[in-house]
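Glutathione synthase structure dump, as promised
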Amino acid sequence: MKLTFVINDIATEKDNYTTIRLTRRAAAMGHDVSLVSLADLSYEADGSITADGVMPSRSDCKDDTEMLADLQREDAKRDRVCISEADVLMLRADPADEMLARPWAHSSSLLFAQLAAKQGVIVLNDPFRLTDASNKTYFQHYPAAIRPRTIISRDEKVITKFIEDEGGKAVIKPLQGSGGHGVFVITEGLGSNVNQMIEATLRDGYAIAQEYLPKAAEGDLRLITLNGRALKVDNTYACIRRYNETDDARSNISAGGKVEVVEPDADALRVAEMAGPKMIRDGMYMCGLDIVGDKMMEINVDTPGGLCMIEDLTEVDFSGAILEDLEHKVRMQECYGKGALGPHELAII
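structure tokens r here:
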């Protein structure tokens, strides 16, 4: 299988990124793997999509640190990659990382990916739908029953009234961003600090204000989904609880949160089940659902992470299962003809 990952930049990849784990596992399984930057794509005169790519030179790296070192060394194996000839193109770039230095890069990469999809390449997640998911407004298209009450606005009065209506408790965050950056948890008694939090959030553009869920104090669940269903291998779900033992209310790993493996409860599995039809329809092949109680707080469709931690804690080969699923999709595509099956069809076979 020819597998290409679109990432932000090989220089900024880290050894705890899901992409590096998938790359190492794919190389060990004998697949032809390459990684390309979202800013290095080209549309050639013959209509093909190409990019300068970096490839693993080894298939026997003992861990992700060794794999990343192989990819980042000065004499790393590099070549021109014809993405149009790939079997699978996986989009693994975080748009939040491009907002300041290269605001054009992510949206442009999706347009290149759309061209590749039109040429019959299996592109995941679906680049046509990812353009609709460029910020957190996409989340509002999921069933209201599994979402917290939410407003999106740049009007301080609208946001202030929402917080008042919620009894002085709410969560506010930028419309764009990831990793818990710029998230404020508002509780009673903060006084004028609330105005400062709102002003700080609005400096980044639109703000989201959501109802405060008391169970969030216990952390949240990160549940990985594949083909619109909770990912499960050997009776183990790809799920962790993220929590913070400090006064910081954020449980994101990048914000200092801790993790433990947990079995998702009935509420969490119901959230995944309710979100499933839209994920399948939108071609959201691999996602990360952040769940508190019976509500989905966010859905990560660009670079769902946490897989490395989950695998290391459970010793379950989720990466191998994902790659075997991709192999199955490639076989089905070959059977029906390149480009004959769309992402939503490939998700249910």
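The longest strand covers residues 32-43.
lmk if u need the other ones
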